[in-house]
Structures are given as C-alpha cells and as structure tokens.
Amino acid sequence: MTTKNIKSFALFLVFLSIPFLSSSQPWMKAEYFPEKTISQNFYEIQAAFYNYWETLEDKSARGTGLKQFKRWETRWEAHVFPTGVIPSADYYYKEKQRFIKENPIDNNKGIYDWTPLGIKSWTNGTSGYNPGNGRVNVVEVDPNNSNIIYVGTSSGGIWKSVNGGTSWNTTTDDLAVLGVSAIAVNPSNSSEILIGTGDRDSWASQSIGILRSIDGGTTWNASGMYFGQGYYNINKILYNPQNNNTVFAASSYGVHRSTDGGNNWTSVYSNNEVKDLEFKSGDTTVLYGSGARFVKSIDAGLSFAANTSSLPYDTCRIELAVTAANTSYVYVLVSNSSSTFGGVYQSTNSGTSFSLITSSPNMLGYAMDGSDDMGQGWYDLAIAASPTNANEVYIGGVNIWKTTNAGSSWSIATHWVYDQYNPQFYSHADIHYLQFFGNTLWCGSDGGVFKSTDGSSFTDLSNGLEISQFYAMGGSEIDPNMIVAGAQDNGSNLLKNGSWTHLFGADGMEALINHTNTNNLYVTYQYGGLLRSDDGGDNFYNVAPDTVGGGWITPYLMHPSASGVMYAAYRKVFKTMNGGLSWRAVSNDLASSNSIDELAVAPSDTNYIYASYNQNLFYSTDAGVNWNGVLAGASVSVTDIEVHPTNPQRLWITLSGSMGNQVKESINNGQSFVDITNNLTNTGFNAVVFDKNHHDALYVGTNSGVYYTDTTMSGLWVLHGNSLPNCDVRELEINYSSSKIRAATYGRGIWEYPLYQYVGIAELDEIVFDVYPNPAADNCIIKLEENAKNTNIDIFSIGGKQVMH
C-alpha cells in the first residue's frame, strides 16, 4: 500500500452529546415516551407525539403542533435507518461524494445545467390567501454596507443581495446541508461571515456546525465547530463588537465561546438550549441569552446564570430584545408550556428582574384582534425593540404586533392573510425572525423576507428567492410550460406563461392538470383536501370524497387517457368517473386505522391498481374487486410506485431506509421483487419514474440528486446532471412534449433537465483505496493499492469546496 499524508484546512470540534428535537416542543417530555425517558430515536419520538396527541381535548385547534410534526415526520421517514436512527448530514454528503468518484457520469453532464423554474416571484390569485416563496429563518445586514443583505433559509441555503434586497443569489447549493439559522458578519471585515447550519424551528435540515466564508459568501469552509454526527442546531452567532476575535454561538446545548475568530470553541453554558443571544447595548461584559430560560453573563461571556425568580418557570420558549435607546432595558417574549402566549416582560435594570407588561390580547394567535387562544411559540416566536425609541417594541407569532408605549397598548402591524388592496399590511404567517438594523425592521417568515422603515407598512423583498419546499407537482403535455405544484407553507401555485400565480393556501400537496383541458385543475392540501377548478385556477370548489383517513400527503391520480376518471387513496381507494363530483370506494380499509401513502394505476390496463402504506403493498387485477397484500420489505416503507406503460404486472418501488436495497423491480404484480439498487448511493429515495421512449430507462429522485439507468448500462446508475442543488427531490415527472424531466425539490423549488441522451459510457477500472479519518481533523491518511498509477485525488471541504486536486 502507498500512504499519502494530506494537510486539512480546518480544525474540527465534534460534540458528542447530540440532541435531535428541541425540548421546547410540547411532546418532547419524558411522560410521553415509551420508556419514560426522552429519546432521539425517530420511532420513539413518533410514539411520544401520538401519546401527547391523545391527551389533547381539542385536536382541531391551530397551534397543537400537528402540522409541524407531520412535516418533520414526512421529511425524515424516508431516510431513517430501520433502527430509528436518522443518518447525519455528513453521512449523505460522503455517500454522494463517494458515488461521484466511483461511477461513470451522465453523458449529459457538462452539456447542460439543471434549469430552475421557481417560484421566483408570484402574483396572488382569486382564491389565494397566503402567497410566498419559502421560509426565511434569519436576516443579517452587513454592518458596513446596508445594501448587502444575507438571509438564511430552512432548506434552501444562504442568499445574498448587494442592492438592498432588489435581487438575490446563492452560492451554497453544494453544501452538505442547505438549512441556515444563524448569520454573523465580522464588523471589522465584511468579507468574513459565519453561518450556523441546520433548521432552528422545524428541523427540515440537520446541522454540520458553523461554516466560514472569507470572500463575502462566494465560498464556504468548515470552522472549528463541526458536527460530524448528530442533530445539533446553531441558533445564533454573535461577534463581540469591541473584539472581533471573540465570537459566541447559541446552540441546542447552550452557549459556546471562541477567542480566535471561530477556530476553537469552549462551552460556557450547557444547562439548557439557548435560542437567542444579545449583548447589553454599549457593554460587552454583559450578555443575555434565552431559550426555555433567560440567562445572563456579567463576565464577558465566561459564565452564565439563569434568572429563576421574576420570570415564569413553566415556559417552552423565551425570546429577548435590547435597545440602544435605553441600555438598561431588556424585553422578553414568553411562550408558556402549552406554546401559547405567556406575556411580554420588561426589565429596567439590565435583566436583574422583570415585570409583566402585558398578557393580553393573544398576540401569538391568528385573529386580528387577538381574541383567539391559539399559538405555537415553540415554532414561531420573535421580538425586536427600536434602537431609537426604547418604548417601541414588535413581537411576532403568526402575525406582527407593535407597541409604542412600552406595552401599555398594542396594535397589529401585519396580518397573515394577503389583502390585495393593502399588500403592505401582509407578512406571511409564522414569524421566525425580527431584528432592527439601523432604523429598518427586518422580518423572516414562512413566506420570505420583509422590511419596514416606519413600523406601519412592510415591503416584501422575497422576489428572486427560489426557496420553495415543494411536495408534489403536475404538468401538461398540451402546454409543456404549464405546471401546478403544492408547496409547504405556501400552498398551491400555477406556473403559466413563465409566471407563477398563488392559487390556494395551506400546505399545498399533490396537484394535477387535466390531460385534455388545461383550464381543469386539481389542487390538494393536507389530510386529503381536494379542490377542483374549471376556469384555470380562478375559482375552486371541494370535490374530495366524503370520507376520513387522508394522509398528510394524500395520493391522487388521473386516468392516463380518460381525464374524468380519477383515483384517490385514504384508508380506502376511491374512484370517480366525473372529475370528483361523485366517488365510490373500490377497496376495503386497506390501511386499517392508517392512511394509504402511495397509489398507482397501470396505464395500459386500469384493472391493475397498486397501493401501499408503510411496508405493505396491495394490488388488484380486477379494478378493485379483490385485493392481495405483500410485504415490500421489513422495517421500511414504500415511498413511490411506478408501473410499466405497457405491462401492468411490471412495477418499480422505492423504499425508505438509507441502507441500500431501496430500488426494486417486480414482474408479477409485486408478489416478488428483485433489487436493482446496485451502485446507487445509500440515501433517502423519494421518487421513481419510467421513460417509455428509451431503453427501459428509469430515474430515481433522492435527497442528494436524480439518478438514471437503462438496459445499456449493465444495471449501473449515473448521476443525472451536475448542477441540481443538494436537497431533497420529492417528486419526478417526465414531460415528453419538451423532452425534459422535472424535479420538485424541498427547499429549492422546481427544476428541469433534458432527458438522458445515450452516447456510450467508458469502462472504469476499480481502484481500491481507504481514507481515514473521514471527515478529517488536521490530517488524513489515504491508502492506495501499489499498482494505482496516474491516480487523481480530489479533496473536498465539508462545505463542498474542492480544496485540493
């Protein structure tokens, strides 16, 4: 063996105690867990939530956490190991890099780039009410140039504007994770930026720690805080304005301090998660922090102590704000243990003691007058104080509220329902971030980024942020440029003539366009809601079956030739002959008390119907009169089903698990399967489609790209294209009219790419090698076979940058 010693470019600090979900979530309590001990196992967290759910008297109330939990459950269920452990972010990253190095490339690669289709901007349709681009977790303005703005998103990376928010661009599509919840620009050197990875409020992406850029965000590398394994979140990063070598990070396990600009870190508080962190205005020896508790340091961050006397103890989350207008003032917004409004408190003695200044109206709920009793403070909670008026405070929950008299009275500043006659009164529901930069108030919400210069009107600056978290889409062969798609938080949206229109709110799910009439659209929302439009999306009416048991993403599909014939899967499979005006069940309760997850009908013979829930696959060969069940795989779930266009007994399925053997083929209705995963990376598999025009061609969509194979490749797969962002591909669809395949991603919108073009693949000799440790600390060792001649070695940082060739 030949040994080469490679110098790395970063020192890594790996934390070994690893939390997954924040304990502020109401179900993350020991009493709900099967063993009465809080666990980070997916299946045990799942059980804890449903145990908590059974304790609720009003399960229909907003703010129970159901919606956010179902998003998390859907996000991770396809990826979890059979043991319940969710692979860390760097596991997927390393698997993809391994695949790229070991396998032949797509012949299209280098010829084309994946093309983004949006959402980039939108107009609100007649039936729309909560339009937006996607979730923004954090906003940061360059302290030396107010035209330079950064935003961090839930699963779409970090974006930069150099013109005050008029346009945006991103350079983080190749990072190991695309969730960003903290951003800090070095006050003395604007080219140096630190970002905290992960998704602070909803865990849509994991964290790999803190990344650093020294070129204004063009490239990114690991800092000294790197999470090789686990589910940490970095919630806030704070430079000491008097000494920029001193940096603080608030994380899932408290507060960490660096005295060398982020190369090395020390834990200075570890009793609780800390969500927010601020210096006392004008005094860097005093810091305030908040999470489930309010904590304070009076020794420049060497230690922190909790305030246990003048603030409520029974809380799930606290956010804080300071003001330069009165350096002794501290405001805190409290969400109580049930995640509803716990009040606003004020300290006039630098956080030594607090007084309640308001407990009503309910400013975390939905109502414009604060009359409801809802709230989800563990998810959306923010507060900011004016730097010029110490009595002017803004708080965010679902809406934004404002006081100009230190809490004696409050008024609503923005509302979550879009008003076309007063758009400056709109900020998309669920406020995750409020912060003053100068005299401008910036807001990050589930719909994008907003700003206000007067505290009364808000401007949406999200135009250009392609960060939509799509679940599903449907295209048209009549009009290949027309797509209808469902997005988390931002509802159902229509792309037509190059522009997006927001059609309907809620969480958008499956979406369909009539094969013969593009004015006939179908959109869905969570738990089986189904709406139909006959006028191109201007108006909708309900056509869902009168039943119960729809899943979070309820599967619907249209007959391949008879567009009035549709199928829907709840606990039973339903069929309509008239576009949803009436339905009849064509199965019994296949899923019992569960919901059917996947549904497919054979294009060549619609007597063949396939349905699945969890690992159970059912098929009917007589249009639903009789059904047979088979086990698709132990301890896994079916994530997609594709039926051959001319052979109704031949099908492909993708499976959850992230441990290989996840793409399978059957030629006998699913009675037996052959594994065709072969050289595919171990990852999460979400979608499979068959190209009817080319060599038995298959595409699969994963959490790390789109892969392709056909009968000319001896069972091998190639990565299809080279520029798709590193985020989940939730659905694939082939548009034959344009010869494109489209990918709906969870965090970076919809993309398209030419179908595979076969021109031959060169044979590659296998080279056996080993790299350890991987990821590396300051050194790594690469061992190659003695006969490995003319070998190229590429080294990548955890941020995806090639640092050596």
Q: What does this 3D model show about the protein?
A:
With 805 residues, the chain is mainly beta. The chain has 4 domains: 2-80, no CATH class; 293-464, Methylamine Dehydrogenase, Chain H, CATH 2.130.10; 470-754, YVTN repeat-like/Quinoprotein amine dehydrogenase (Methylamine Dehydrogenase, Chain H, 7 Propeller); 769-804, no CATH class. Helices cover 5% and strands 38% of the residues. The protein has 3 helices and 62 strands. The strands form 16 sheets. It has a 5-stranded mixed beta sheet with strand order 3-35-34-33-32, with no helix packed on it. Strands 2-58-57-56 form a 4-stranded antiparallel beta sheet, with no helix packed on it. A hairpin with a 3-residue loop joins strand 33 (483-487) and strand 34. Helix 1 (42-54) runs antiparallel to helix 2. 54% of the residues are buried. Residues 1-21 and 760-767 have low confidence and may be disordered.
Summarize the structure.
This protein has 805 residues and is mainly beta. The chain contains three helices and 62 strands. It starts with a strand and ends with a strand.
Name some characteristics of this structure.
805 residues, mainly beta, Methylamine Dehydrogenase, Chain H, five-stranded mixed beta sheet, 3 helices, 5% helix, disordered N terminus
